[in-house]
Amino acid sequence: MRCIENPLITPESIPPTRADFEVVSVINPAVTQYNGQVILLMRVCERPISQSGKLRTPVLDLKNSEVKIKTFSLNDPQLQYSDVRVFKYNNRSYLTTMSHLRIARSSNGIDFVTDEKPFIFPYGPDEEYGIEDARITKINSIFYIYYVAVSRYGISTVLAETEDFESFKRLGMIFAPQNKDVAVFPQRINGKYYALFRPDTGDFANPCMWIGSSDDLLHWGNYTYLMGPRPNTWDSKRIGAGTVPLKTDHGWLEIYHGASDKDVYSLGLILLDLEDPSKVLFRSEKPFFSPVESYERLGFFSDVVFTNGMTVLPGTDTLMLYYGAADTCICAARLDMQELFGYLRIHSNR
Amino acid sequence: MRCIENPLITPESIPPTRADFEVVSVINPAVTQYNGQVILLMRVCERPISQSGKLRTPVLDLKNSEVKIKTFSLNDPQLQYSDVRVFKYNNRSYLTTMSHLRIARSSNGIDFVTDEKPFIFPYGPDEEYGIEDARITKINSIFYIYYVAVSRYGISTVLAETEDFESFKRLGMIFAPQNKDVAVFPQRINGKYYALFRPDTGDFANPCMWIGSSDDLLHWGNYTYLMGPRPNTWDSKRIGAGTVPLKTDHGWLEIYHGASDKDVYSLGLILLDLEDPSKVLFRSEKPFFSPVESYERLGFFSDVVFTNGMTVLPGTDTLMLYYGAADTCICAARLDMQELFGYLRIHSNR
Description:
2 copies of one chain form a homodimer. Chain A has 2 helices and 25 strands. Chain A is mostly beta strands. Chain A has a single domain, classed as Tachylectin-2, Chain A, CATH 2.115.10.20. In chain A, the strands form 7 sheets. In chain A, strands 18, 19, 20, 21 and 22 form a 5-stranded antiparallel beta sheet that branches. The first copy, chain A, is globular, with a radius of gyration of 19 Å. The two termini of chain A are 25 Å apart. In chain A, 49% of the residues are buried. The mean pLDDT of chain A is 95. β17 of chain A pairs antiparallel with β17 of chain B, so a sheet runs across the interface.
């Protein structure tokens, strides 16, 4: 089911925002359709071009919201690497790259043209270290974009809206730190909006999926635990929402990500009750999709498939699942809806 | 300014909920007034009476919401003590005691009569390990009670309401894990409710105070960072809201807690803008109140003063500040409002 054209979009094809920067990855796109085109709102990760013996990372200058470069000596004993994505200096966390959100458009869902410039670029103290991993939920004619904002104060989720993918408006922080992997359902259910989210529960539990509700998409509450990692399986270490849930006859279909103890990221499939999405009707035992191909197994962070969205190509039975591969590039898989629904029918006993 | 009657309420005076349990502390009360009496909604921490060589802790049985006792051998190498309040077994966090909320009433603010039974007792999966540290905000004739709920999935804040302190109704989780130290302002400000809260920001930052807003007290959003710990001071390790903010001519008065690197908990004083409480007008450099007396310096967790509320005694200029001392007992301090306002006038330059 992987597209033979994979990877569809690679870092080499993305112009950096500055001549002295390089794009190290383009990943984890939000997915929607507008004006007859598939729209991907991609996370583009940049960093200053390397200098020997130095670690240089971009952060916002909070005085003027311009990007400045922080430089650390690799020999400095205060410097501690967590992994290739995160490091600590003097007990403060930093990211090795700064991300922004950029649009790619396609008429067939395969061949994409990427904007030269960012659509949403980090701004203000909440976005000091960058913005990442957007998802888009279309409700009526408004596209609600929500993305991960990273700052010295942690990882939060910010809501924005657009009607035309030309301009956008920030609406405020909807999930305070530590929260990511938010996925807003595309319609009210019994009068309420619902969202999946992934709080960081520190020493208590490996990261779990939760669900909350809202009257206005801006204020959230009624938080409930939905499901957690399963020890000694492919999703033992952490899980979080992937796609925006899709309404089917069998329930709300959600493709989520799970990481194993060895940080291999795969995708699983759940069905949530149509009337009460805090009820899990079905959860796949085995991963629905795992890193297999070389572009999924080797990259900036190896052994990763991670999705933020899917879309049904108009007039077809094809569900296009877009995903980040090895934290490096964007790929897609074609899912036959009839096949998928047959699978769900069998496994959900409905 | 400490009451000479301190401590006002001690664990020995509180009947446990079971004959085989002991009350180890009674602390951190929510404070309000009802029917001409000062009401404290106290956190009562209980545990099974000790047995040699064993660690026994109460948790809810999620099937029937009854308390059961989990027993661990102190020799078990899987057992790891964090501090006297928390331990880990097989990498899962537990508390050493289970807390519930109990009422004490007083006509003079000093002599309290304690209820024989809990007012709010842990119930359901969110409260598996107990409920702690309530605050009460009275809005119109409703007393909104919000308290910390602890479970295997972390530390959250749940909202309830009462009109009479005879019965109450749970309204839902308002801050998902990891969140505590919520303090709701007692009136709308420019049409919105506001609350201080304290997310756990993990590796990013020592715990900071944030502020959010709401239309209905149930759903919250528009989250903004308010202020953080100050390195190498009395509030360097973590800070969080204490009292429900009190409206004064000089701004919203908030007495917050801060812990030093050595986990000494003191109280500080801030003023927030009356029209925009996300603006800090004043923050005390030095602690306003620190552990000094023996009942504050020695106890279940030593060197702690921690407040959840204060109230102006009717017809007086006396602000009664109630606080937990050394995580063991409840004390109070009398603040002369004219003196306090004089201090604020000088320090806030207003």
